[in-house]
Fold this protein.
Amino acid sequence: MKKIFVGLFVFGLLGACSAENSVKSTSSSSGGAGALACTGDKGVKPAESDYCSSCTISATANPAKCTNARPVDACCAFVAGPKGSVARGTGLVRYSGSDATVNLACLKAPPAGGASKTVTLKGNVRLFSSGDDSKNVKIEIFKEGANGAVGERVGEPVVTTGDDAKNPPTVDTLLKKCPQEGCKFRAFEYPNVPTETPLIIKTSDASGGSQWAELYDYNIYFASSAVDGSNVIKYDPSVVAATDLNTVASAAGGFTVKPDRGLLAGEVHDCGDVRLSGAYVDTDVEHESDVFYFGENEADPLPDKNRSQDGTSKLGLFGMLNMKTGVPVRISAVGNYNGQMVLLGTYTVQTFPGAVTALSFRGRRPFQK
């Protein structure tokens, strides 16, 4: 998972361009977005990106310099110049905002972290699109390692079952592919989870079969301030049906999933954890398809090829296919807000053969100094 652009006049006010890294634009001072073009190898840097000013271009970066198609240097990952402005996703079931005011307060400075404590994670395993019961899902939690690697495992794996007493389900009727009586999202408990720690939550098929694909959910961070009086933190991880991978790949432009490559998907949220439309995303690692953005149907999320020039829809969803695995992947999101192009988020992940790497941007995190 997003980006945005401004005219040359606005860039001048921001001080975002210099003689060395300026871009040319056909935009007018009235705010219309025009084509951006590189000057030399340097790209324009969005506002609110000072905290990653010391980043370096990866040895595996592609592209490794500014291009006219991707002229924005978003923390050493080049992104397309955005159009329009970001807006909050309203009227949604999940990660929706009743207030339309975009919250980007955490971009200037991240929220302060607290003292780490060990808690119990409780939630329900949600289905991304297909399936009718999130049973037989294996849940594992890991600390993030260096350069997006999977670090040491936290606690012991938990498996959801079809036993309503052991894993009571929440019945959900949102998804189009659910049966008439609704899908079952199984409850679980996972003890000994640290707060104030960057985590990865992995879901997979508990039987080692092919019903559920492996999914690595990055940028999971539980603040100690959010822990309730029972020493519980709540979060609903997702599981992806294996059949969804090729469904998404086909909808993105007739692609197929390569078993030795990884998939990347995610959402762009603001600092209030509400989805954003109008964001642009890209990575410093090559992907077979162009970045694709999903349409606005929350009940049946699929790529919408008509959004390639508009960025994320109100669902905030984006994706990339068939990426090289086993290397750090810098992923960044940009967008226009109040006349500025800003860095909405940046993160380093890795992708895994035949698996989905998921990342939801939630602004600047406490550990991103």
Summary: The chain has a mean pLDDT of 90. Residues 118-242 form a domain with the Immunoglobulin-like fold (CATH 2.60.40.2190).
